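**User:** My hope is that you can spare some time for a protein that puzzles me. As I understand it, each token names a local backbone shape. I would be glad if you read both lines and explained how they fit together. The protein I mean follows directly.
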Amino acid sequence: MTQDSPEQTDAATPASLDALLDSDVDGLLDAPEKAVKITATDRLERAFLEVVDFRRVHGRIPDSTTREISERRLGARLDGILANDEKIAALKHLDEFGLLEMPEAPASIDDLLGEDDLDLLGDDSGLLDVSDLPARRQVYDGKSARREKAEDFEEFEPLFKLKHAELKAGTSRLMPYSQLAQIVEGAFFVLNGVMLFIAEVGETQYKKSTVRENKRERLRCIFENGTESSMYRQSLAIRLSDEDGQYVSPTTVPDVLDDDQLSGSIYVLRSLSTDPQIAQMKDLHKIGFTRGPVETRIKNAEKSPTYLMAPVEVVASYRTYNLRASALENLLHRVFAEVQLDVTQGDRQGRSYDPSEWYVVPRKVIDQAINLIVSGDIVNIEYDASAERLVGR
């Protein structure tokens, strides 16, 4: 082995940083390019291009009502885009097949018949001649349910994303709609390929008929395409039944089987206290759990600080299976911690207690929370006290 001379070393080594960079003919010293940040516009365009590719391959637009999940997803995506003027404007330059062009409605019955190239609407019998009929003016009373833009959709959009993630992960599943009892606040459904969320169930209204008195409730249905409707609960039930609607059900909550263990009951109580400090509190409720009969649990409530030293009224009770009392208490405390009653109560011996499980929250919100607890969907939900409703975390 021989040692290089100083002259040989200087000849092989670049004399400066510039010379070193110039000698890097392979670009090994180049700084790596920064990844381009994907914007919301990029995601929107990529999503629409998938619909365009489907049209190119199949020669038709994707059907949002088909049972083929991948096609239905694309169809629902296109429906959502068509319901948003801003998205339509942003995607016009990519619309090579005219998917975003909305056909103009016929101005008259003559225009409609004029477009009937196959004469399918031919009227030799004169059945379509309405010239002799009296004109009928349609009056909109403001009560019929119509789809309109949901102004606060940004509050609900995370819930839809979460539910789609659960479906993809298998923690939720699509089940055929089966009964009116499934339509409660917090429930998700799929109607004609579009997911909807029951944000609110209104007060029960009673309408008398010649046969019986019917009850009905207005809903606030939020659709994942950014629209909402105030249809009646019974109307949604009919549509879900007639149009093969689906219910989004958690896979972690099985049906009640013979070997399931009855845990007890969740109960909701209202205080009948005459104490002005308690009586003036609107929507004050106690939410608790008992393994035995609720009536036995609340016996002699007026002697117990737990019940605010006053009689109570049972507002509602729900039987539960395979549920741990500690888990229930922790969930309720987390969801309603902000509105938990903060008072100190004294018993007859002069000892002080801080009653727990009392919350200032409307009854309908409690019903929704308990349904979400039983279904397992309460994990990512919290209570917005100012809006008096449950929202996504």
